[in-house]
Design a protein that fits this description.
A six-stranded mixed β-sheet has the order 3-6-11-14-16-17, with no helix packed on it. The protein has strands spanning 2-3, 6-8, 13-14, 19-21, 28-30, 35-36, 41-43, 45-47, 63-65, 68-70, 75-76, 81-82, 87-88, 93-94, 99-100, 108-111, 116-120. Helices cover 0% and strands 36% of the residues. The protein has a single domain (2-120), classed as 3 Solenoid (UDP N-Acetylglucosamine Acyltransferase, domain 1), CATH 2.160.10.
Length: 129
Amino acid sequence: MRKGKISIGENTYINGNERIVTGNNSKVVIGKNCAIGRYFHCAAITHSLKRPTRTDDYDFHLQEEADIIIGKCVWIGERVTIKHGVTIGDYAVIGANSIVTKDVKDFEIVGGVPAKHIRFNTEHYLWTL
């Protein structure tokens, strides 16, 4: 499902079963030449901890919004979740089954729940240029 203000760069592919959602005041931008695995999930909008559900006094919950920006040539494994407000740098690699809650630097490899720094991809041919 794709819903809202979403931009996907040329030559980027998503292998299917993705969920990309934005709010009225947020967007998702995915750069060109990205490879994204199945069951990818990112939402630039979420429930606010201030009032995450309806209550007896309020018949609506509060939401938080923040853009998600994914750089160019990023490789994202299967079943990855990107949380609102995260920026992923160019040439980054996100391991399968990860939940990304913090920004990822250019050429950085991260993985886990929550995703943590593993190393930088110094093998990438652009690393030394």
